[in-house]
Amino acid sequence: METVKAPATSANLGSGFDVFGVALDRPADVIRVERASETTIEVTGVGSQYIPEDPDKNVVGAVAEALDAPARIRIDKGVRPSSGLGSSAASSAGAALALNALYDRGYSRSELVPIAAEGEAVVSGEAHADNVAPALLGGFTVAREGAVTTVETDISLVACLPEIAVSTRDARRVVPSRAEMDDVVHTVGSAATLTVGMCRSDPELVGRGMDERLVTPARSELITGYGGVRSAALDAGATGVTVSGAGPSVLAVCYRRDRRRVAAAMLDGFDDAGVQARAYQTSVGEGSVLF
Fold first, then answer.
1. Which of 135, 213, 240, 273 is surrounded by the most beta carbons within 10 Å?
2. GHMP kinase C-terminal domain location, by residue (predicted)?
3. 87 is in an annotated binding site
4. How many domains does the chain fold into?
5. Domain with 144 in it: what CATH number?
């Protein structure tokens, strides 16, 4: 048997749509795999009642098929589905790492990224790597077709998860198909600023680099109370705020000394909108861990 702890992740980070991602040091999934003649899946934990156990409909079933590694797979969910915190990516990445070890397939973590992304296609319809890359490799990742760049960084974050659901498919439908050149230039500048900030572990630059005018404004409309939560976080010391992945989680960058105050402010912001929420005081962390 092999056991993997796979972290939550946050993708896009505002200016890096379908490209940027970070691993979070909490929450996480735990995936256990044992050899079997055919794949079976058992899911427990937060939101497990909404996750299909049919291998043809579960992300880890696609990963097991891609690796030709049938197994009894047990997933203890710590990352809520439809949270914007890479729930499906945690399961996909964890299963890929565990099955690779169980069957001694010999793939490196980088080579497992496109395999784990096949699981993401089950949920979103497309094999995106922006969440599975940091889930496998840790740190801040820049995922492009055929290549992933990883940066170790020390950045404090707050991920605030409201008790509402936004599906990845719905969040992708609202993304504009066209953009004005001024907005494209603005986004490129923000993405470059954020990348430099990650390399320097500079919360000011990372927060400034989250700003963009294309994807976030459209997706924020799907999140009840987003405007108030964003303002509250900034007033409490956050250096930048954006939608985490497809949402509904809201991600704030801050200095470590301000993390508790920012978390409390974000919870109050959602409460003012009549929405219950949970805040994770976290930071950019490591990738999946094989026990």
1. 135
2. 197-268
3. yes
4. 2
5. 3.30.230.10
